[in-house]
Amino acid sequence: MWQELGVAICLLLVLEGILPFLYPRQWRGAVAQLIRLSDRRLRLMGLASMLLGTALLYLLH
What we know:
By secondary structure, this protein is an all-alpha fold. It has three helices and no strands. The longest helix has 22 residues, at 39-60. The two termini are 15 Å apart. Keywords: Membrane, Transmembrane, Transmembrane helix.
């Protein structure tokens, strides 16, 4: 189980690094927009992301 968790974290880092590597200017603009969002909106986005990830894991497994 720990090996799969390590692999998942490594893949997450690779995927998160793609956009700043390919489009640094646009990525910086997107981060600047995220900074201006309210805490409530960020929490809702985080919740939606977790629910989508959970649903996709359920469907794929």
